[in-house]
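Have a think about this chain, tokens included, and walk me through the fold.
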Amino acid sequence: MHNFLPIAYFQNQFIPFEEAKISIATHALHYGTGAFGGLRGIRDPQNKKQILLFRLDRHCQRLSNSARYLNYDLPADKIKDVIIDFVKKNQPEISFYIRPFVYTSDLGIAPRLHKIEKDFFVYGLELGDYLSPEGINCRISSWHRQEDRSFPLRGKISGAYITSSLAKTEAVESGFDEAILMNSQGKVCEATGMNIFIVRNGKIITPGFEQDILEGITRDSVLTIAKNLGIETVERPVDKSELLIADEVFLSGTAAKITPVKRIENYHLSENRPITEKLRSKLAAITENRDKDYQDWVYKIPV
């Protein structure tokens, strides 16, 4: 049961969440011609009169870029202004998640992106841990990640998430928590909504952009934090066999934050995860505005 925030932004105005409705004939509903973002917010633990959003500018720019794939010119500054007003109107008290969405709002039936209406809405919900912070069990999915030559994978296009949905259900219904997808070349790609990292011999290794991954904002944050901590990072193709002998494996994403993996298929990983825990502790301090070195990553909204 989700606890949605009471106010949504819909059709250029703020209205009660339950009044924000779309037609069953909406173009995006039929063709997956939408794109979404997702960002977390919390009340500042040190100052309850302000709300903190993690890397707001990056999230707004990525959604603006995603909208371009839909032939929709939606400036990042417009998205940012709406999200700030959205937070001020809702004033959530506990950890929450914001879902901005751009889509083809026309009621036509032809699959196209030209000469068709587009729109943009925002809603939110209270959200704690998306995955268990104690660690999760993963399986290798029988479904493969799409290729960039047939799908704009650098955007969070809604239609792409049929693969994630198939893989997630396959994993859960076979006794696991999450799925790991391979790409068309048989290399490790990502999870159903998260990037993946392995640790070997003190180095952090993660698939590069050429491996058909999403350009994750939390992924970028992890790499930046690791480099600043003096931990060597490598972006390269990762084999399935490397997952099974890695010293540590973890997932990253806005909802998942940094989530350790404790088992892949029937291979149990070490419960000693020094690098994962160091990164997770650092990211928590940053998002809670307790780290002076990353002040520009936290947008403060007085409420």
Summary: The first strand starts at residue 7 and ends at 10.
